[in-house]
Amino acid sequence: MSFTLSCCFIVKNEEKVLSRILDCVKKFADEIIIVDTGSTDNTKNIAQNYTDKIFDFEWCDDFSKARNYAFSKSTCDYNMWLDADDYIFPKDIEKILKLKQDAPNFDVLYLNYVTGFDEKFKPTFVFERERILKNDGTFNWVEPVHEVIVPHGKGLHEKINIYHFKSDNPRGDRNLKIYERRILKGEKLSARAMFYYARELYYNAYYEKAINVFLEFLDRKDAWVENKIEACLNLSQCFTMLNDKNNALESLFKSFLYDLPRAEILSQLGNMFLGEGDYEKAEYYYLLALKCKLNVAKGGFVLVDYYNFIPSINLCVIYYNRGDIKKALRYHKRAKRLKSNHPSVIHNEKIFSTNKNF
Question: Hey, is 84 helix, strand or coil?
Fold first, then answer.
């Protein structure tokens, strides 16, 4: 027995991309819910070609309230949330259709969210999100920005990718301003909100302020370990932008307090030492990065290239400069298998193919 599925959107001025995702969704959704938060373009007219369930929501600086409103309009067994600039490839649509038909027992279904990818659409930045949730009134969005649903019940993990193509609508400091308006009102940020507030400061180049917020976040005992590890990486990037190498390194090493070393951290350590010409330390950390297991199910952000391509291409450089051509060629071939069209791979291929001594 299959289950019914409602796909719920909140949108504003998405005329350039809305049809793309709705053409995907109409192939598996039993119901499409569109909540418009103030479009001034053709968004609502486009939506009418796919559904008559279009609702207006007065914007109040709170994404969770808008998403909860969209969920409240659903009449199906499960709710699936999506953004207008998402996309689902045909092979993943087929997986969703099969999942509906098989109707496994679950309360929350976790799918991969791919927000970075190469020219062949191979994921480079991916993380799991709670994507399909039982429509029983117990799943509610929280946090005004970078909203999330706290999962409960039986969870199911499926290797189905939802791709996020960045919208032409510039975000700029929109999220940052929402946070700062709430802080001015005296609102105390949750640990999660503090983490994302620090990231918004970093994205908007307020590095010194971001550092202070990241450090305050890392002192919180109620912070999620995955966010703490990512905060260490972001903190290091802030210090790097301020040309503070020592604190940048210390921030990366601090992440080891929270869990086993991640390839993102190890590769970044390798990058820093390679930039200093310290091949011995760079080699050490790149080799460790290659041994790390990529685990999207942990829920944290995963930078895929840091687990394979970046260590491989840079180990090729290290061994070449050391004169160990055999090892350099080995890692070149490894990098080539991963990204044959990458400019660095093409450059190295010319060197190896034109020198007969290799």
Answer: coil
How far apart CA 9 and CA 32 sit, in angstroms, is 8
Asked if 33 and 6 touch (Cβ cutoff 8 Å), the reply is yes
Q: State the pTM of this model.
A: 0.91
Return the amino acid letter for 113: Y
Residue 94: C-alpha distances to residues 84, 90, 150, 160, 303 (Å): 20, 6, 28, 10, 26
The amino acid at 271: N
Q: Is 93 left (phi over 0), alpha (psi -120 to 50) or beta?
A: alpha
For residue 35 the two structure tokens come to 């909540």
Q: How high is the pLDDT of residue 170? A: 61
Q: Which two tokens stand for residue 303?
A: 């930078």
Angle between helices 207-218 and 225-241 (to 10 degrees): 150
What is the Cα–Cα distance from 228 to 220, expressed in whole angstroms?
9
The 3-state DSSP class for residue 188 equals coil
User: Helix (H, G, I), strand (E, B), or coil: what is residue 282?
Assistant: helix
Return the C-alpha torsion angle 195, 197, 203, 208, nearest 10.
-90
Cα 156 to chain centroid distance, Å, stands at: 19
Instruction: Please tell me the predicted confidence (pLDDT) of residue 356.
Output: 60
- Altogether, the residues listed in the chain come to a count of 358
